[in-house]
Design brief:
Blueprint: H1 2-126, H2 139-145, E1 161-162, E2 165-166
Antiparallel strand pairs: 1-2
Length: 181
C-alpha cells in the first residue's frame, strides 16, 4: 500500500506541480497578453498622436498658404491701386502744368496787347499833328527809278573811265615765274 500511496502522492504532487505550472503559464500568458495589449494600445496612442500632429501641421501649412495667398493678393491689389494712384497723380500734374502754361501764355498775350494798346494810344495822341508820308516817294527813290538812259533819247551814258581805261585792274595779277606759261 505504501507504494500505492506513494504513487498516489506522487501523482497528486505531479498533478499539483502541473496545475501550478499551468496556472503559472496561464498567468504568464495573461501577463504577456496584457503587456502586448498595453504595447498595442501605446502604439495606437502614438500613431493617433502622430496622426494628430500631422493633421495639425497640415492645417498649419494650409493656414500659412492661405495667409500667403491673401498677402500676395493684397500686394497685387496694393500694386494695382498704387499704379492707378500714380497714374491719376501724373495725369493731374500734367493737366495742372498744361493749365499753367496756357494761363501764362494768356497772361503774356494780354500784357502784350495792353502794352501795344497803350503804345498805340500814346503814339496817336503824340503825333496827331504829323502828316503821314507813307505813300510819298522820296527824291532818292525817284532817282533810282530813272534808268541809265535818258527818257526820250537813245543816247547812252558814258562809262566812268579814265581815258578809255576801266577803273581798277582788268586782269588778275600773276607771279613773275608763271608769266608766259
Amino acid at each position: 500500500m505504501k507504494i500505492d500511496e506513494w504513487k498516489q502522492k506522487k501523482q497528486t504532487v505531479e498533478e499539483s506541480k502541473q496545475k501550478h505550472i499551468r496556472t503559472k503559464k496561464y498567468e504568464e500568458e495573461q501577463k504577456r497578453k496584457e503587456k502586448l495589449k498595453e504595447e498595442q494600445e501605446w502604439k495606437n496612442y502614438k500613431v493617433k498622436q502622430y496622426q494628430l500632429q500631422k493633421e495639425l501641421q497640415h492645417e498649419e501649412k494650409q493656414e500659412i498658404a492661405k495667409l500667403e495667398r491673401k498677402r500676395r493678393q493684397q500686394k497685387l491689389r496694393d500694386d494695382q491701386e498704387t499704379k492707378e494712384r500714380i497714374f491719376k497723380r501724373e495725369e493731374d500734374q500734367f493737366r495742372r502744368r498744361a493749365e499753367l502754361v496756357i494761363t501764362k501764355k494768356c497772361i503774356e498775350e494780354e500784357q502784350q496787347m495792353r502794352l501795344e494798346r497803350t503804345k498805340f494810344l500814346l503814339a496817336e495822341s503824340k503825333f496827331d499833328k504829323v502828316e503821314s508820308k507813307l505813300g510819298h516817294e522820296t527824291k532818292a527813290a525817284q532817282g533810282k527809278k530813272r534808268g541809265k538812259f535818258k527818257v526820250g533819247t537813245d543816247e547812252k551814258k558814258d562809262a566812268m573811265t579814265f581815258g578809255g581805261r576801266l577803273t581798277g585792274p582788268s586782269v588778275r595779277a600773276q607771279p613773275s615765274w608763271r608769266k608766259g606759261l
